[in-house]
Design brief:
There is one protein chain. By secondary structure, this protein is mostly helical. The chain is built from 19 helices and 4 strands. Helices cover 74% and strands 2% of the residues. It has a two-stranded antiparallel ribbon with strand order 1-2. It has a two-stranded antiparallel ribbon with strand order 3-4. Helix 8 runs antiparallel to helix 14 and helix 13 packs antiparallel against helix 14. The protein is globular and about 60 Å long.
Length: 485
């Protein structure tokens, strides 16, 4: 079925579209990270167990993973602006609920609502493709992709300041106010995209994908706590394999699938999805390990014993670098193609982790290594959506980028589990408490750097669009229909 164009309307506020959408992406990342400094104190503040408190992170992860491809497909079908406003509204409502309660059950449900914000970035990238002239799309998409790191860099120090100097509910009131501002700005500045892909929504495919992803990510995120060899975790992984296999068969058989697997597994789309998985893994290890390392006690021989606020300030430069470097990554993609940018990002990521392996005891070296990792992440994250945009039709961009963001999310979840497993198995006793050793951190860096090099190899295997056809023109025409991506 061919896309049905929606009549164009004037764009009086076009110049605000990019900054407003970028603000929404930053808000999404801030919402995901602000709870992290609270986790050690939440059992005392809520009267819940540490295991229950951990679900405030897990619920957001699961909801975001499930809703990102679903809302992307809904945006392609029913209007990207409409779905974007809905995602921002759910995110804001989740903040309000968190601000009003100390009941862990309500907090977990509210954090699940905030998971809907994960769809903001792919929806915004699709809107940018539809709304901007080609010569502006590259830099705008690069900025939009970088908002993930920018928001994470801003969210941690913001939350740390609130945790140290104010009531913890204030943090959620602040994010609620920011969310309401982002929602109002998007309603005012972003017009509805003229490109749609009408059809019947794949409810069965949505249910199957949700069930499979919940089993997979629940097993990955809770495996360290429940035991990787436990019957519960093994059953979750087995269920994920069976459900996702049946889901894939359904997607291949139905006329209007949630995800067009024939398009998604082609080299021009499938390889960027796989690269997103490995890049997400490599990126997330930096955030996880750096925060723990600089807060480690001085008695360990390597730790700096920094406070939560000081740790947040240490993470701030990485977000600033991603903001400043995004235009550079766009120019590299314009000059040499996004596959080269993606490959370069993997190499720079690995270089950053190499610096961390050589020296992780001096603060300035830690900051330099983290900055290099952030630079590589900017290159890679800006290239991934550009590769997708050049390989899929306009009517499928939101759903295709939703799948790409999903792969990054899975990579981050696996990274969290893998880093935790490495650090747990390399500990020493400090003041009666088990603390990761420096060797454990170095192994985590080596693992993340190796994964980044795998992402580089995958990037080099992506077909060169300059050889395949005109840049920006989808080549996979036989399967690039208005179905999903």
């Amino acid at each position: 079925m061919d896309p049905v164009p929606i009549p164009a309307t004037p764009r009086p506020r076009e110049r605000f579209t990019v900054p407003v959408l970028a603000f929404g992406g930053i808000l999404m990342a801030v919402m995901q990270t602000v709870v992290v400094p609270l986790l050690p104190d939440l059992p005392r503040l809520t009267g819940a167990s540490p295991a229950a408190v951990s679900w405030m992170v897990t619920a957001t992860l699961l909801a975001g993973a499930v809703l990102t491809p679903v809302l992307g497909r809904a945006g392609d079908m029913y209007g990207k602006r409409r779905v974007l406003l809905g995602a921002l509204a759910l995110m804001t409502a989740g903040s309000v609920l968190c601000a009003l309660t100390s009941d862990i059950r309500v907090l977990i449900a509210a954090r699940a609502l905030q998971g809907a914000a994960a769809a903001v970035v792919p929806l915004s990238i699709s809107i940018l493709r539809d709304e901007l002239p080609p010569h502006r799309t590259g830099s705008a998409v690069a900025l939009m992709s970088s908002t993930v790191g920018i928001g994470a860099g801003l969210g941690l120090p913001l939350a740390a300041l609130v945790v140290q100097y104010a009531n913890w509910h204030v943090m959620f009131w602040a994010t609620a106010a920011l969310g309401a501002l982002g929602l109002a700005a998007a309603w005012w500045a972003v017009r509805e995209s003229p490109v749609r892909s009408p059809g019947r929504f794949d409810a069965l495919g949505t249910t199957g994908l949700a069930a499979g992803l919940v089993c997979l990510l629940l097993g990955v995120s809770q495996g360290g706590q429940w035991g990787w060899g436990s019957a519960t975790v093994l059953s979750l992984f087995a269920g994920a394999v069976v459900i996702l296999a049946l889901w894939a068969l359904w997607q291949l058989r139905t006329d209007e699938p949630l995800v067009d697997l024939r398009l998604a597994v082609g080299r021009r789309v499938g390889l960027p999805h796989v690269a997103a998985l490995f890049t997400g893994f490599a990126f997330y290890a930096n955030s996880l390990v750096t925060a723990q390392l600089v807060q480690a006690p001085v008695a360990t021989g390597y730790g700096l014993g920094l406070s939560i606020v000081a740790t947040g300030v240490c993470m701030l430069p990485s977000g600033v670098i991603m903001l400043l470097f995004s235009p550079v990554s766009a120019r590299i993609s314009t000059r040499w193609g996004p596959r080269v940018t993606l490959a370069a990002g993997g190499v720079v990521l690995a270089l950053g982790y190499g610096i961390r392996i050589v020296d992780s005891t001096d603060l300035w070296v830690i900051l330099v290594g983290a900055a290099v990792v952030s630079t590589g992440t900017t290159l890679a994250y800006s290239a991934l959506p550009t590769l997708i945009l050049r390989a899929v039709p306009a009517a499928a961009t939101a759903s295709a980028n939703g799948v790409n963001v999903l792969m990054r999310t899975i990579g981050q979840a696996v990274s969290s589990a893998a880093v935790a497993a490495v650090l747990v198995h390399h500990t020493t006793d400090v003041g009666g408490l088990p603390v990761p050793t420096l060797h454990g951190y170095q192994l985590a860096f080596a693992m993340a750097g190796s994964v980044a090099l795998v992402a580089t190899a995958i990037a080099l295997a992506v077909p060169d669009d300059r050889a395949a056809g005109t840049a920006g023109t989808p080549v996979a025409a036989p399967v690039a229909t208005a179905k999903g991506a």
